[in-house]
Amino acid sequence: MLIVGLGNPGNDYEKTRHNIGFMVIDELIARHNASKLSSSSFEGELYKFKNHLLLKPLTFMNLSGNSVVKVKNFYKIEDIVVIHDDLDLPFGALRFKKGGGHGGHNGLKSIDAMIGKEYIRVRMGIGKPQHKGEVVSYVLSPFSVENVKCLDDFIKSAADAVDFLTEHSLDETRSQYSKKGIEC
């Protein structure tokens, strides 16, 4: 299974809402003491634990599909999980689905264009800004002080769900780990 966390590379984006996928991958790397695989041709950081690969595309969000398709094709992987931020869900909500639209998420749009839509999505709620015109600045800004209090628990919960998903079905994972949000 290829498990992809979406985000943007660099210190400027490290703690932003858009990088929550990277944060979950970092938790999984630490949890499983995953070993780094070296190859600049993948355009991302690639790690392995058991029979699973963990990927942080370093192409910036809008080109995430370039990295995903390279790893998918090289390792001939069919089972792909993408962990990403979701504006349409309140902070702390955790949802799971296979396929569907990108909902305006440029990382998903890029992946859809490169490999199609039939992959599992781990949707992590980050809430939404008050005005639609603020979406870009909202996703590229750090979590609120209030959200930061619960962020570690949210990331660990998503990592638990992904671990569970590596051994169980999507339906079982959905029923066990779906959340409507977190009260901080």
From TrEMBL:
Arranged from A to Z, the UniProt key words for this protein are:
Cytoplasm, Hydrolase, RNA-binding, tRNA-binding
| InterPro entries with a match to the protein in the record | Pept_tRNA_hydro (IPR001328), Pept_tRNA_hydro_CS (IPR018171), Pept_tRNA_hydro_sf (IPR036416)
Which sites bind tRNA?
13, 60, 62, 106
Name a GO CC annotation attached to this entry: cytoplasm
The EC number of this protein is 3.1.1.29
Cross-referenced Pfam families, in alphabetical order? Pept_tRNA_hydro (PF01195)
One example GO MF annotation = tRNA binding
* GO biological processes: protein quality control for misfolded or incompletely synthesized proteins; rescue of stalled ribosome
What general EC class does the enzyme of this chain belong to? hydrolase
Where it mainly occurs, coarsely classed, is cytoplasm
Location in or out of the cell: Cytoplasm
| Site location (Stabilizes the basic form of H active site to accept a proton) | 85
Active site location: 18 (proton acceptor)
Catalytic reactions of this protein: an N-acyl-L-alpha-aminoacyl-tRNA + H2O = an N-acyl-L-amino acid + a tRNA + H(+)
Q: Where is this site: Discriminates between blocked and unblocked aminoacyl-tRNA?
A: 8
The cross-references to CDD domains, in alphabetical order and at most eight, read: PTH
Function per UniProt: Catalyzes the release of premature peptidyl moieties from peptidyl-tRNA molecules trapped in stalled 50S ribosomal subunits, and thus maintains levels of free tRNAs and 50S ribosomes. Hydrolyzes ribosome-free peptidyl-tRNAs (with 1 or more amino acids incorporated), which drop off the ribosome during protein synthesis, or as a result of ribosome stalling.
**HAMAP family the UniProt entry points to:** Pept_tRNA_hydro_bact
Oligomer and partners: Monomer.
Q: Which family does it belong to?
A: Belongs to the PTH family.
Q: By its UniProt entry, which PANTHER family does this protein fall under?
A: PEPTIDYL-TRNA HYDROLASE
UniProt name for this protein: Peptidyl-tRNA hydrolase
